[in-house]
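Quick log. Single chain, no ligands specified.
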Amino acid sequence: MPAIEVVLGDITAEDVDAIVTAANESLLGCGGVDGAIHRAAGPRLARAGGALAPCDAGDAVATPAFDLDPPVRHVIHTVGPVWEGGGHGEADTLASCYRRSLAVADEVGARSVAFPAIATGVYGFPPEQAATIAISTISATPTQVERVRLVAFDEATYQLLTTAAQG
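-> predicted structure:
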């Protein structure tokens, strides 16, 4: 099980091998965290992602990190579920995002990975439930990743992730 750290900050400035982005199926970039990562990585990220699209909800793929500062070498794109009330497999799909991202991290040899709070923005997943799913899934997923940083973009998300991590 990787060491899990919760931090408040800018995911594009993390000192990790790979950054996970909460993408849409086109992998071309959009708003929120995905937009910030695309801006930091430069236009080649959208071209590389678009060449791998579409990506289904719950799946993940990797591209180079392009203009992101080393040691970041990879961007792992995962597509979260759109919240439809919770009765449409959203929790399972969100858990799959974390499992598949860790599997892709293993495929590219990443030993440290930064995750945002997947699907809690415009996709509407309830943040408290998402935090619990993130922690429990990462903790239960076999991986060669040694360190996971959950990067909260605001204080409320930081508090939810910290509470979930404390169990």
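The longest helix spans residues 90-108.
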